[in-house]
Amino acid sequence: MEDIKTLAEEIQNQYVKKWRDEGGKILGFMCVATPVEIIEAAGILPYRIKAMGSPEKELADAYMSRFNCGFCRSCLQLGLDGTYDFLDGLIETNGCDHLRGMFENWELAKKPAFFHYLRVPHFVRDDSLAAYEEELGLLRDALAEHYAVTIDDEALNVAIATSQDIMGMLRSMNGLRERGEPAITGAEALAVVALSSSMPAQPFKALLEGFLKERSEAKVGGFRARLMLGGAATDELYFVEEIESLGGMVVADTLCYGSRALWSPPDTDGGPLHQLAEGYLRNLNCPRMFKDYEQRRDFVLGTAARAEVDGAVLIHNKFCDLHAVDNVALRVDLESEGVPVLLLEKDYGARADIGRIKTRIQAFLERIGG
Amino acid sequence: MSTQLVHPYEGLFNRVAGIFSIIPSLPDRLSDEDIEGLARLLPAELSKTLKAVLEPGMREGSLAFFKAVGIWADKAAHAKEDGKKVVLMPFNFAPEIIYMFEKAVPVATEMITTLGTVALDKQGDKYWDFALSTGLPDTLCSASAIEIGSLLTGIDFKPDLILSAAPGSCDANSKIHEFAANYLGVPQIMLEKPADTSRRARELYLTYFKAMLREMEEFLGEELDEDRMREVMEKANQAHDLYDELWEYRKMVPSPVPNIFNGFIYGTKYTVWGQDEGITVMQKMVDTCRRRVETGDYPAPREIARTYWAYLFYYYDFMEFFNWMEKRGIAIVGDMPSTWFTKRIDTTSKESMIRDLASNSFDYFMTRQIGGKSILLDWCDDITWACRELSANALIYCGHHSCKQTWSVYSQMRNEFMKRTKIPTLLLQGDMWIKRMTPMSSLHQQIDEFINNVVARPKSSRK
Fold first, then answer.
1. A104 contacts B178? CB cut-off 8 A
2. Of A43, B166, B208, B460, which has fewest CB within 10 angstroms of its CB?
3. Among B148, B186, B408, B417, which would you mutate to test the A interface (most chain A Cβ atoms within 10 Å of its Cβ)?
């Protein structure tokens, strides 16, 4: 496991370096609404931009502001300071207002060789699904033209199958985590999911197979309560480790950089782009979507029930209005189902703040009797 | 929920509608003595506002505006008795769309907040506090959170429908309206703006727009009537022509347009556009400007600066903020909400009206810039154009902490803007609707320093 955690925490891990040394291209994206299968079908490595708890923001603050999400600012910082210079291009999405600003500033400052704006609708409806499918076609065409590659349906179908294969394995991993006696910790699970979008699919699959085999009979003990962690973009492994060090085992999550990305294949006809449009848009479970609160609520309630949690911690990064507002509604619904909730605002990557966070977690654990 | 917070006061809308219902009964012409007498009768806060906006140089237009919003609020307050549905909408939605329906009246969230801010004791503070007491974050926009906070108390009016056109241009606005709809069990219709400026995006937006109209028809049980649509659109067109006249006055040096009229232009747009009152207000404002040109009436010895505001103003100082600048010769020649890229509606057919309405909604303030392909460049393009048209010599960005989109690119937008225009810029921080955040004296000082040391300082005295 230590290998996976180390690999996950390295922005440019050995697999990424090897891919690049062998002449492979790498495209950065950030939002879970980005269909990586199209990038993979082009023979390009999709890399999900993350900051892994990096607290530095001073370069980014010259572009964005302190009223913007710390996660986006930390990611921009890594773009500006050269950490992400291994990326050959970027794919922007309108994930949220902060994310848009981050990408605009990144493009302006670094002028990547390839930059594409993938516009993701905010509703799931027949007309918006058709628009999104058209957007995916535009992304495919832009990649094909810029990199002089052919992206046909066959390649897309292979990429979709590979992706679903990995998602299935990650869901199995979550099964190990959610069971009565968890086989893995929440921090470990988050590291695995983070790594899944930071390296080529095949070697990751091999690593994951080994990990699942190693852990299938394991039992993680010594915790006081079973927790679910939900809310905003959270890739800070230390944050989850701190919660677990207090005895709150994170047996489930609904995080964007965690289990929210593990959607099941859609039951739909049509070509691969149609399947991707349906699959991604219908499974975003993100507060950037509108008029589908019931789906997000059911996803959260379902996860909490399946993992038999004693309580839920719903977090948001300071200035993230989307998650902060949604968390209030989710708290009401979770509590009405008998699941105690702690709403927690955090400043992304700010380890100096961890004392306050730990105090609140401790108090919450005491409240729920853990 | 903390019920103790609720009991001592009533809802924001109810209070606003009550207090503004007084104004339409005032005569159209008020003498100084009338105003002095009126000020003694009205609550202190509203008196302060009225005295500020009823100064002789702007009295006619200001009174017309407050009368219009009084009528608008009254119609909404009595909508249910009149068999109509109240549709709550954020400010980036055109109310004339709602007026096209016989059975609906519009209420704009941000207008209620602003009217409460300029007229009520302790402004909107307690509604903001109530919103936060539910767990909502203090990083939300106070313009929407104050009125939504009042709705959440359960003692204010309850809209029949919440309609939002903010998805794609403002997360905070969209999300809090969605939250309120779910919390209160009110149906919601949303219109998304594709983050693009291409013809394809316009066509997609038209598709979404038509879907929204169908949803409204279904909700109201009323099919859009072409004759009624035309009647509303012709009134909107008349008001639009008057807006164009005002735009020409705004180009003049010194500007004959009172600073506060910028706010009244969009205040009219958000409330009574497509109604007789909308035409009346715009006409009275044009008349006021014409008279100022004819008489050479200007509140300062000379115009020392022509400021363009990159986003919004401050509203919490009972409107005195605008006069304070004007008396120093600091003109506000425009701001984003009063800079329109909309057009007259082609009333030839139902289809032509829908198509043009969708086009205007696409180009609505904030929707057009922030919901564009690039927040930074689309915003910068429009500001650059407006500053050149209006001969602005200073740009001021009033950074509300909630405007995450504009904050996220302001730094580079400012650089790009200054590179293009050589016009100096000032960044202010503060909440436009809550005075607890930044004292007005601090804003006065910053504006004074900027204008006197950077904008109006003779070049020969610069080292």
1. no
2. B460
3. B408
Q: In this complex, do A101 and B408 lie within 8 Å of one another by their Cβ atoms?
A: yes
Which candidate from A288, A319, A328 shows the least CB-CB separation from B404? A319
The 8-class DSSP code of residue A260 comes to G
Query: Rounded to an integer, what distance in angstroms lies between the CA atom of residue A262 and that of residue A259?
Result: 5
Look-up: residue for tokens 């023979």? A43
In the predicted model, is pLDDT for residue B286 greater than 70?
yes
Best mutation target among A325, A327, A333, A348 (most B Cβ atoms within 10 Å) is A325
CB-based contact (8 Å) between A122 and chain B?
yes
Sorting pLDDT into bands at 50, 70 and 90, what band is B43?
confident
Could you give phi then psi for residue A311, rounded to 5 degrees? -170, 165
Mutate to test the interface with B, among A115, A127, A289, A290 (most CBs of B within 10 A): A290
CATH number at residue B13: 3.40.50.11890
Residue B461: pLDDT band by 50, 70, 90 thresholds? Answer: low
Lowest pLDDT segment from A121-130, A140-149, B258-267, B399-408: B399-408
Please state, in angstroms and rounded to a whole number, the distance separating the CA atoms of residues A201 and B376. Answer: 36
Q: Which structural domain range is residue B138 located in?
A: 3-222
**Domain total for chain B?**
1
A64–chain B nearest CA distance, Å: 4
Min Cα distance A226 → chain B (Å) is 24
Which of A65, A293, A321 shows the shortest C-beta gap to B182? Answer: A293
Domain assignment of residue B117, yes or no: yes
Give the chain B residue nearest A323 (alpha carbons). B175
pTM for the full predicted model:
0.95
Give the per-residue pLDDT at B2. Answer: 45
ipTM of predicted assembly, 2 dp: 0.94
Q: CA separation (Å) from A250 to A216, B62, B249? A: 18, 59, 64
- Determine the Cα–Cα distance for residues B174 and B292; give it in Å rounded to an integer: 41
What average pLDDT does the segment A103-126 reach?
A: 97
Is B463 among the domain residues?
no
Chain B contact for A288, CB < 8 A?
A: yes
Residue B165 lies in a domain: yes
Is B167 within 8 Å of A293 when comparing Cβ atoms?
no
Residue B150 included in any domain: yes
Number of inter-chain CB pairs under 8 A, A vs B: 135
Which tens digits make up the pLDDT trace of B120-166? 888 999 999 999 999 999 999 999 999 999 999 998 999 999 999 88
Phi/psi at A56 (5° precision): -70, 135
A67–B376 CB contact, under 8 Å: no
Chain B closest-CA separation from residue A2 CA (Å): 37
Q: How far, in Å, CA of B122 to CA of A124, rounded? A: 42
Residue B9 pLDDT grade (very low, low, confident, very high; cuts 50, 70, 90) = low
Which chain B residues are Cβ-neighbours of A316 within 8 angstroms? 137
Angle, vertex CA B69, rays to CA B66 and CA B75, nearest 5: 140
Q: How far is A180 from chain B (nearest CA, A)?
A: 32
First and final C-alpha spacing in chain B:
60
